[in-house]
Amino acid sequence: MALSDSDRRAALEVLRNAQFVYGLSRYPKKQVLDDPVDVKALRERLAAMRTAATGLSAAQRAKLDVPWADLEEIDSGTEAVWKAAKRVTPMVIAELTPLVRDDPEAAFLIAPIKRGRKAETAAQEAKVKEPPKEKAKAQTGLTGKEIAGLELVIQQRAAADDAYFTWLRGDHTLPLAEWRRRRAKAERARRAEELYIERLFKSRSANGP
After folding, report:
1. Does some domain include residue 136?
2. What CA–CA distance (Å, rounded) separates 29 from 106?
3. How many domains, the chain?
4. Can you tell me the distance from the alpha carbon of 153 to that of 201, in angstroms, rounded to the nearest whole number?
5. Is residue 127 assigned to a domain?
6. In this predicted structure, what is the pLDDT of residue 199?
7. 113 lies in a domain?
């Protein structure tokens, strides 16, 4: 049965936020949970996923093998946030992506790769059975993974800048040490964004004609 327009819109909105959550959850748990800005960003995106999921029809939600209840627990603490990010998000991406595969935006979605001998064997068998293909044309645009990575560093830089500029806009109650920490973090985030973009350019240059 074809996906309804409302279910399609809801699924795409859930996936947009899930991309960010999945990208950030690939970092070490301690690194993420020790950073209040990252935890806040994760919780906000998970909450956005939860809200967008309410736009799915009851019949469509029932078909999906997703532990939606975990998203309801994200306000209980950082461990619940991490659990939802690591457990729910990959399942959401795996379940919803096939439903919107014919949508142009789906070309920019990343999907968790299943590991294990069974998955590797299936991939090898599929490779053997595939007929010879014409040589693929050189890719000119960014891949979905590259776009997700770029979005992640931009979001981290924006969050760090916001925390820093809050003080400059008038929140002078912060101790000087905290202000210095925020300024240093904003500078690191901006540098990380620049380095990521530089690596993209270098990678494209190396793989180009």
Report:
1. no
2. 28
3. 2
4. 15
5. no
6. 78
7. no
